[in-house]
Amino acid sequence: MPFKPGKSGNPATQFKKGQSGNPKGRKNAAKDILNKILDTEIEDRTKREQILNTLVNMASRGNLHAIREVLDRTEGKSTEHIITEDIAPIRILEFGDEVIDEKE
User: Please, what is the average pLDDT of the chain?
Assistant: First the structure.
């Protein structure tokens, strides 16, 4: 009995050419479940609001990790700038150079 295109069982004709086997992509079920839990209300506030309130309280008591998390989320992560005083050209060594380590 010949296989019909689109029927399961024949991997050569299971999908049409150019057709994705997973058109909607991978589902993010864990994220959806967590968001559903965090959005549940207890005493007129969501669990998400309670967690954020706890984080801010920890930061106000001086918890460095909580302070960093609050600032990263509200102000953005800080970038490190390196300032050098001496600007010297880069010397490229070639095979056979005898100078390997210069000290001034």
Answer: 80
Distance CA 12, CA 46 (A): 50
CA distances from 12 to 2, 4, 18, 19, 24 (A): 13, 11, 13, 13, 22
For residues 3 and 9, is the Cβ–Cβ distance under 8 A? yes
pLDDT band at residue 69 using 50, 70 and 90 as cut-offs: very high
User: What is the rounded CA–CA span in Å between residue 54 and residue 48?
Assistant: 10
Spell out the long-range contacts of 60-69 with Cβ–Cβ below 8 A and sequence spacing 24 or more. Answer: none
Where in the chain are the domains?
Answer: 43-77
Give the length of the chain.
104
